[in-house]
Amino acid sequence: MQRNNLYLQFLILYLTAFLLNAKSFRNHLKTMASPTNVKKGKVLNYQGSPHLVLDVLHRTQGRQAGFMQVTMRNLNTGSSTNTKIRTTDSVEILHTDNRKLEYSYKDGDGYHFIDPETYEDTLLSDALVADAIDFLVENNAYTILFVDDSPISIDLPASVEIKVTESPEGIKGDTASNVQKPAKLETGLTIQVPLFIKEGEIIKVSTSDKTYMSRA
Predict the structure, then answer these.
(1) What gap in Å lies between CA 112 and CA 99, rounded to an integer?
(2) Which of 38, 148, 160, 202 supports an S-S bond with 216, CB 3.0-4.6 Å?
(3) Does domain 96-155 have CATH number 3.40.50.720?
(4) What's the pLDDT at 34?
């Protein structure tokens, strides 16, 4: 009887390990793909980090196997790299998802974004929002890129509407159209604006070069 119980326990352990390995193998097959499936906008697992594909060129070498010339940006560090991937190799394409979340507040843990439908709170670290911090306005919606269900980057729009909190009055009698003055915005960013802009106004600011565009 004791021998039968030991055999049964061994059989259960063996089947459990087999099923776990089979599941892992199936998941591996789902994520691995041919380099010919690599396209601009895809996210690859390259050298252990998620990389966003910026550009892809298919090259051939006579009778030899061709290769893909891929330009990518490391989503963890922001650095770009250019590499060759042979068409006979396999690549791991990560599952991505873009979600519209509203910026709520910042505390000691980081920056909190809320899903307006489910009210689920997503926490983003200081490092992740470093390039977007000057454009984070409470209750504004932002597109967050998730890789394998983890937030990885913020995709800013071309412009953001931000309130002017501090700006000196324009000099009377100065009618030159190109004269500007400094203005501090609610996000803490200070930019140059036309003389007619007053405190409390909402203006459009370019996210590419942090310049004034127009009144909102």
Answers:
(1) 14
(2) 202
(3) no
(4) 77
Which regions of the chain are under pLDDT 50?
15-20, 22-30
DSSP-assigned letters across all residues of 191-206: EEEETT--TT-EEEEE
Given the candidates 3.40.50.280, 2.30.30.30, 2.40.340.10, 3.40.1160.10, the CATH classification of the domain at 32-92 is: 2.30.30.30
Q: What size, in residues, is the chain?
A: 216
Contact 23, 70 (CB under 8 A): no
Cα separation, 165 vs 137, whole angstroms: 13
Q: What is the pLDDT of residue 120?
A: 95
The candidate with the shortest Cα–Cα distance to 128, out of 162, 77, 79, is 77
pTM as predicted: 0.69
